Amino acid sequence: MSKIDQIRQLLYISSMTESAAIFDMDGVISHTNPFHAEAFRAFFKNHNVQQATEEEFEQHMYGKHNSYIMQHFFQRPISPEELRTLEFEKEQLFRVIYKEHVAPIKGLIEFLTELKNNGFKLAVATSAPRENMDLILDELNIRHLFSSTLSSEDVKLHKPHPEVYLKSAENLQIPVDRCIVFEDSFSGITAAKNAEMKVVAVLSTHKKEELPASNDYINNYTEISVANIKAILKTQEL
User: Fold this and answer.
1) What confidence tens digit (pLDDT) does each residue in 116-161 have?
2) Residues spanned by CATH 3.40.50.1000 within the chain?
3) Where are the beta strands (DSSP E) in the chain?
4) Beta strand ranges found along 71-197 (DSSP E)
5) Architecture in CATH for domain 33-101
6) pLDDT digits (tens, 9 = 90+) for 185-203
């Protein structure tokens, strides 16, 4: 066997033994949804759009891309150019509101550190704009823990399409059956399952019965360990 073939074999063996944990952001890394709702209320008021109820936010905002949210609440088609303008305005409001409140979901940083110490590759895969992701990762000082960080600008197709998760696995060079995803929304869990990855549902915005079947369910990261993750990855059930 040539030296090149030996290296290829070692890389293949490594890819089959290494694992990855991929995290959505809103509702998974931070409890951002109440602040998104606050930003949307101010945004809707600026545009004379009827105020949404909490139930409407749960159904039509949490885990959804801005293109869907805007068209639903404005009740009309929105061109790509107008969407970019509206999205920038709303997300800028969110960042101003949330900057003084950025905090991790309980146990997150300790859990990320435990995963890294056990050889897991980590990624962020969010439908949020990159500026939002940058704000949260930098305020929490956790950017260095992630080998891949993808936001809405990095994909053409949004959740529930699996593109962001498949692209994350590609960036990490980990097979999809060695990846586990942490998600809190119906569309996000569906995207992970469409990527044929294992999923842990974080019950920060929805109840268990409101979400697709997942491999495990947690309220926060004090309820899970690396041992749990390794056990889930060994199962054949998606």
Assistant:
1) 999 999 999 999 999 999 999 999 999 999 999 999 999 999 999 9
2) 3-31+103-234
3) 20-23, 121-125, 148-150, 179-183, 198-202, 216-218
4) 121-125, 148-150, 179-183
5) Orthogonal Bundle (1.10)
6) 999 999 999 999 999 999 9
For the entire predicted model, the pTM comes to 0.87
Q: Quick one: pLDDT at residue 10? A: 44
Q: Between 33-46 and 66-74, two packed helices, what is the crossing angle to 10 degrees?
A: 40
**Burial bucket for residue 76 (CB in 10 Å: 0-12, 13-18, 19+):** exposed
Domain with CATH 1.10.150.240 in the chain: 33-101
Domain 3-31+103-234, CATH class in plain words: alpha beta
Which residues are CB-contacts of 184 (< 8 A; sequence separation ≥ 6)? 24, 26, 27, 28, 62, 63, 201, 202, 203, 204, 205, 206
What is the spatial distance between Cα 117 and Cα 121, in angstroms, rounded to a whole number? 10
